[in-house]
Amino acid sequence: MPYRAPADEYQFLFDHVVGLDKVTATDRFEEATADVASAILEEAAKMSNEVLAPLNRAGDLHPAKLENGVVRTSPGFGDGYKAIAEGGWIGMAASPEYGGMGLPYSLQNAVNEMMGGACLSLQLNPLMTQGQIEALEHHASDAIKDLYLPKLISGEWCGTMNLTEPQAGSDVGALKSKAEDNGDGTYAITGQKIYISWGDNDFSENVCHLVLARLPDAVPGTKGISLFMVPKLIPDENGVPGVANSLKVVSLEHKLGLHGSPTAVMQYDGATGWMIGKPNGGMAAMFTMMNNARVGVGGQGIAVAEAAYQHALAYATDRKQGRAAQGDTILGHADVRRMLAQMKADVFAARAIAASCAAAIDMQTATGGAEWTARAALLTPIAKAFGTDVGIEVSQQGIQVHGGMGFVEETGAAQFLRDVRVTAIYEGTNGIQAMDLVARKMMDGGEAAYALIDEIEAYAEECKGTMPDLAGPVFTAAETLRETTEWLVEQELNDRFAGAVPYLRLFARVLGGYYHLCAANAAGADSARARLAQVYVQRILPEHGGLADHVRQGAQDLYALTDEDLAA
Amino acid sequence: MPYRAPADEYQFLFDHVVGLDKVTATDRFEEATADVASAILEEAAKMSNEVLAPLNRAGDLHPAKLENGVVRTSPGFGDGYKAIAEGGWIGMAASPEYGGMGLPYSLQNAVNEMMGGACLSLQLNPLMTQGQIEALEHHASDAIKDLYLPKLISGEWCGTMNLTEPQAGSDVGALKSKAEDNGDGTYAITGQKIYISWGDNDFSENVCHLVLARLPDAVPGTKGISLFMVPKLIPDENGVPGVANSLKVVSLEHKLGLHGSPTAVMQYDGATGWMIGKPNGGMAAMFTMMNNARVGVGGQGIAVAEAAYQHALAYATDRKQGRAAQGDTILGHADVRRMLAQMKADVFAARAIAASCAAAIDMQTATGGAEWTARAALLTPIAKAFGTDVGIEVSQQGIQVHGGMGFVEETGAAQFLRDVRVTAIYEGTNGIQAMDLVARKMMDGGEAAYALIDEIEAYAEECKGTMPDLAGPVFTAAETLRETTEWLVEQELNDRFAGAVPYLRLFARVLGGYYHLCAANAAGADSARARLAQVYVQRILPEHGGLADHVRQGAQDLYALTDEDLAA
């Protein structure tokens, strides 16, 4: 059951749902013509299908290992990485000044999903590097940019993010790693970092760690954090890696999934680092890196959902059971069909949300327009949390479609669930995403949300004549979202937090309806798109009512229930 | 974070929710006094906590292995099994005539959950034996009963169920194993069976396989299936195991979870078997075995949900993050608290449904009353599917509460998900359960469902004065369930199937509300029970509206969406 990267889906989304033409109409992205975009989708799909997909199982069965302090990656991963690097897929959105292609993030996002569906654990590596490239582009000195960016963009070197410490996870401000001024423009970094994805490898010439640490006089909390570039091998001025830095991989985690991706505990013992951005300005730089990484992780969820869907569909198309005497497969059974239809409908919804977010990011980049900045900021936590939730849910359903075979590892259905599970946790748990949505992203009083809801309602209104069965429920759901948002922005923060997760899902449900409606409208009433939209609107969208009720509870009942009650 | 078996919860359910007193008021169960029940809960909890729980991780890390045709079980499992057998926990509901305790199934069900929460993979072994005991009690000849029952009840021998073949999973009628009359009262059984839980072990004196096979002249489908007892070692008339039968374990599956439970491919090559029940009457006997096994598997889901909840709560109570300077743990964070509150509320709901089903089974046994038979039949698929769905969902949330630690295997949170995942699949997938509910269990035109809905509404009506915030929404939800049921029973079968899964969940949601109301009412408005009920009714019960909408779609849209559409 070979993986088939969804290039056609992205082509459709670009052409008919998220309107990539408005992105490529800008000066900034004028070179990303329709032909270029198509060629990129096609090439990346081919590489994903032919080179990366065959590595997925090997990564699971033969995890990365730490041997005498050296990380040994899974069989074939070195060659897979080389193919990614040589294809230019790492730095495709990076600045041409340093060897990048300067393409829209929309395309990068599409390519990332295709690579992730093929082999998530390997794809995580360039995803980390891309985040680092972006952080350096925005915050590093010219000297650092000149030295590091060409190597990261070409893939000769890889990048990592070092935030988490044992006592500082979601609460980044609690981190303790120290940075002491060496007096020569460098800093001595000391501390332990955990959950470092791709903390080391045996296929890149160097590994560049971006590490959050505190200067000696820093204030407590997030305002006292600075960011440092700490390379594994210290490069000379020509970019030739030299002496080994004072850092090491202490151990690799034994994880539920993503076995091909080495998750390291890193130890820094006075390692030499260069400050990125301003003293105590580390969080700003890190947020640059993390924001798009969040969309990227949402894309990982969608990637696995797509792969799990294809896998389950292939099984259902082949598996005879029940009315087998008539040659029927389980695809003919209503309940199996329901599962597959819902899986496909949700993959579309999640992907459209992510693509829409990516397009907003591009418009922000190209125009600097405040409305695009707000739109991108609003959609980012939704794209991340909903994409990864869909990844988990679709993988779960994929196992269920397989019946007993789903529980047997050889089938491959279980690996999707094991691999994707972490995506709801890393880059900020989905709870953190939801809190970001109801707090930071509502500091405008809901303005960005209302602008999007207005857009949805106006579009649904337009379609009411031609597609009443779809447009009507979408409009109604959008109204519920508006009323719920109006209620939400009036509440204290903790009352918002108590309903943050269902609010985010409510928002995603409405967005999913909107994009399904766009797709159906573009493809026509008698199209596969319209039929899939019908499934979404009839079976899935009704979830929104219960979610809205949930949101409106506030926090009171959660605290009325005492700690003792919970432990009783 | 040691497991603490929920003996108190069962005591409360027995006393205040499912009314065990009506069971023990019958002649059949008069010996199961309140004191006896309490003592059993306490003893079983102690054994589960102290003997079984310490084995859970070992079973995961050191899976059962097949070595030279012999199954080697996980470290400590032999001793754990011995403790279960010697405690009398295997045959506690079995007939005293053969060494059982003749206790209500309600108690058996409670003990099974407690053992399952401690170590699911080991608990699955006696669960299988219990099903076999019941099948033999109802369908076997006296000679077979005399020979096998005392050994199975004492635990000297273990029992298995052999239904599935590679081409015959949910469609049992497609099985091909043959049974040829040897002319001496025995049959020669030939065929391959897959997914045989605990197909062999190294701690019981014998393993007794109940095998479905076809006589040479049998008609196709389920009406041509007979059931046979096929022991691993053929016992002499005194019950001493002798010569090895012509059967073997071909291989063990490499599974997502439940590593401590050997899942075997079994090969029978003219193995000697004894028919159980009538020729071609195998399905009836198998259903006896499977029906209660379904409740038992539902209990496995609840068991893991309870364990995962306790594990997550302990983590949240201990983990400092965020406002850590004030000594706060993440238990104080609204979103974490929401997750834990929902987990606890759903564990209660699922457990109450299962306990209610068990009580109905007991009343059926004790009184033979048609209303109890119908009630038990109606609740069985709900108890199975909802219990296991809750097992998966709560395990998922448990991982999420742990953040990054949830993805690291050492934490143990991931094992719960891996272990419980199969419970939604085996003993009939949850889709099959839902189809059973909307088809077979509605052959009465909805009578059994309406009787239960009447009971719920009458109770909610009673409570409206004292607990309006709880009783009102429960009444409303029950009305929605009634209307949805009225719609459902008028539909063609395939239109029912298309909404079967959401219908089952809708039913479970309403039942959960009912039992939470019972608990709150019993404990009083100012009680932990009432506060938990509030969370359920406000945050979870609203899900019912969307589910009802989903049910009413029928199958049309699923088939309008063509196979090509799904593959597009």
From TrEMBL, chains A, B:
Keyword Zinc annotated: no
EC primary class: oxidoreductase
InterPro entries to which the protein is assigned, alphabetical: Acyl-CoA_dh-like_C_dom, Acyl-CoA_Oxase/DH_mid-dom, Acyl-CoA_Oxase/DH_mid-dom_sf, AcylCo_DH-like_C, AcylCo_DH/oxidase_C, AcylCoA_DH/ox_N, AcylCoA_DH/ox_N_sf, AcylCoA_DH/oxidase_NM_dom_sf
Domain Acyl-CoA dehydrogenase/oxidase C-terminal: 280-440
Cofactor(s) needed for function: FAD
Domain Acyl-CoA oxidase/dehydrogenase middle: 161-269
Key word Flavoprotein present: yes
Keyword annotations of the record: FAD, Flavoprotein, Oxidoreductase
Entry-linked SUPFAM superfamilies: Acyl-CoA dehydrogenase C-terminal domain-like, Acyl-CoA dehydrogenase NM domain-like
Pfam families recorded: Acyl-CoA_dh_1, Acyl-CoA_dh_C, Acyl-CoA_dh_M, Acyl-CoA_dh_N
The protein's Enzyme Commission number: 1.3.99.41
Catalytic activity: 3-(methylsulfanyl)propanoyl-CoA + oxidized [electron-transfer flavoprotein] + H(+) = 3-(methylsulfanyl)acryloyl-CoA + reduced [electron-transfer flavoprotein]
Residue span, Acyl-CoA dehydrogenase/oxidase N-terminal domain: 80-156
Limits of the Acetyl-CoA dehydrogenase-like C-terminal domain: 452-561
UniProt GO molecular function: flavin adenine dinucleotide binding; oxidoreductase activity, acting on the CH-CH group of donors
Signal sequence extent: none
Known role: Involved in the assimilation of dimethylsulphoniopropionate (DMSP), an important compound in the fixation of carbon in marine phytoplankton, by mediating the conversion of 3-(methylthio)propanoyl-CoA (MMPA-CoA) to 3-(methylthio)acryloyl-CoA (MTA-CoA).
Similarity section: Belongs to the acyl-CoA dehydrogenase family.
Protein's recorded name: 3-methylmercaptopropionyl-CoA dehydrogenase
